[in-house]
Structure formats: C-alpha cells, structure tokens
Amino acid sequence: MLDAIAAGRLAAEVVGVFSDKPGAAALERVPEALRWSAPAKAYPSREAFDADLAEAVAACRPDWILCAGYLRILGTAFVERFRGRTINIHPSLLPKFRGLHTHARALAEGEREHGASVHFVIPELDAGAIIAQAVVAIESGDTPETLAQRVLGVEHPLLLAVMRLAASGRLAEHGATVTLDGHPLFTPLRLDFAGDLTHPATGLAA
C-alpha cells in the first residue's frame, strides 16, 4: 500500500501503522510519529492489549483499518468499535479453510484451485462478508511452500484493488452483506489477470 501510494496508484494516506511486533519491517517504512507497537505478551490479557491498540488506532481517526500480516485475533470489543471499517486479507478462498495452515489444508483436501480473499472483519474468525477473491490453480507436485508463493503473488494486487474501492467511498458493509456503490454484492468480486476487479457473473469491471 505504501508503494502504491508513493507511485500514485492509490489515492490514500496512511495515518498509522500498528504492530504487536516492535521489530516489524512495516514500522520502519513510515515516520516515527505514525508508528505504534507493543509486545502483546507484556499485557496481562488480550483484552488489555486490544484496549491500548484500539485507543492508538482511534487517535489517528482512520477511515479504514487494514489488517495485513497481523496474526493476532482481534477481540470483540475492538472489532465492534471499528465495525464496517476493518478489512482483512486471508490466504484461502473463503469460506474454505478459515484459520491457519490454509495451503497445506487445500492440498490435503485435493482442491483444484486456491487463492486469497479480502473480507470485512467480524468477531468470528475469517467469517466476515467477502469483498473480493483472487484464484490460483493448484498444480501437480505443489507443496504448501510453492502454493504459498503463488498465492502471495496475487494477494498484493488483490488488496490494492480492494483498497482503491474503499478509499474512493464505493465500498461498505451492511450486516452480512457487502455493498458496492450502494448495491448489494451477492458474489465476491474476482481479480483478473490485469489486476482489476470484475463481477464473476458478468465479467464487467467493478
């Protein structure tokens, strides 16, 4: 996202970067005034950590909160405070393979395709309304590692395409439904080879 903003490919501003890992590389990409980090293990409970994190996020007054590479489960209080503004990227074609080890599980189940999903965050893990997906074919001889590399290759353009919609005010969450330009999106958008999002039923650009 930072590279896309710098290159003029995303009309947005990063107002804060937050991590439970003080050494996270993303923190080094922004000025010190935009950084917040604290080791979660230093807190007496998950709720206490989430409360501090929520206050730090709220102080930045963000329009959107993007979870990317953040592996802690956000508690209900945090999620509800920022409901409808928090987006996560997950390495599977949700609702399949919520949680961890998605690539190994896809291979074990004999899936023919795999991919990544961007969804709204709700208290239930990886269960929020799905905004868009990118699909990769599973090839003969794939391992969890080779599959993970190909999925990572589509995660970045997928996330960028979704954030363009969000930053332009076209995207919203209404209950369990995603809306695009005020209209319900009953099927997740799909990322095409050009890096654009399309409606899978029609092939038309979003």
UniProtKB/TrEMBL annotation:
Q: Which GO cellular component terms are attached?
A: cytosol
Q: Which domain of life is it from?
A: Bacteria
Name the CDD domains on file.
Answer: FMT_core_GART (cd08645)
The family database entries (Pfam families) matched by this protein are listed as: Formyl_trans_N (PF00551)
Picking any one GO molecular function of the record gives: phosphoribosylglycinamide formyltransferase activity
Q: Which UniProt keywords apply?
A: Purine biosynthesis, Transferase
Where would I find the Formyl transferase N-terminal domain in this sequence?
Answer: 2-162
Gene Ontology terms describing biological process: 'de novo' IMP biosynthetic process
EC nos = 2.1.2.2
Transferase in keyword set: yes
Q: Cite the annotated pathway.
A: Purine metabolism; IMP biosynthesis via de novo pathway; N(2)-formyl-N(1)-(5-phospho-D-ribosyl)glycinamide from N(1)-(5-phospho-D-ribosyl)glycinamide (10-formyl THF route): step 1/1
NCBIfam families reported for this sequence:
PurN
- In its UniProt entry, what is this protein called? Phosphoribosylglycinamide formyltransferase
At the highest ranks, the source species' classification is: Bacteria, Pseudomonadati, Pseudomonadota, Gammaproteobacteria, Lysobacterales
What gene is behind this protein? purN
